[in-house]
Amino acid sequence: MPKIRRLEIVVANPQIVYYPGQCIRGQVIVELNEAKKMRGIRVKCRGRAYIYWTEGSGDNKRHYSASQDYIDNSIVLFGKPPNVSEETILPAGNYSYPFEFVLPFGIPGSFEGPIYQGYVRYWLKATIDIPWKFDPEYKTLFTVASVLDLNTVPNVMASQQVSDSKTGVLLLL
Description:
The chain has strands spanning 4-11, 17-18, 23-32, 36-38, 40-55, 62-79, 88-90, 93-102, 111-112, 118-129, 137-144. By secondary structure, it is mainly β. It has a single domain, classed as Immunoglobulin-like, CATH 2.60.40.640. Strands 2, 5, 6, 9, 10 and 11 form a six-stranded mixed sheet that branches. The chain has a three-stranded antiparallel sheet with strand order 1-3-8, with no helix packed on it. It is extended.
């Protein structure tokens, strides 16, 4: 029987949909069958955008990618911070560690683009930092719904026109 029976994140909002500026509250639940040596238990809130695309074909094919972090915060729920190697023992039993993260204002809403093209994702991850072993983790995604008030956008009713062009250089050898 494993020492760690349960590692789970339970959020207070069962719909797991949030708006920029809102607070995410929840608990990390840990159940141990027997005492466990560890450095600590942490929870992380992360939001990240990633984009990937290719241009050209054959030998002229070029790959592009970029990423941007919107939130990357961690809280130590039990034990020491990750840069401290001091270990402690958590006795067998059931534990509940509350946490709270405030989402920044102005972050974009969650987005899933076409296959392998891009995304904006937000997640919570709980980790038990065990020395010299693989760290058990539990990850759960949540959705950020952005609200755009068109009343605040100047000239939103004006007609728009966009054009784009791309030029290349042909080299003759």
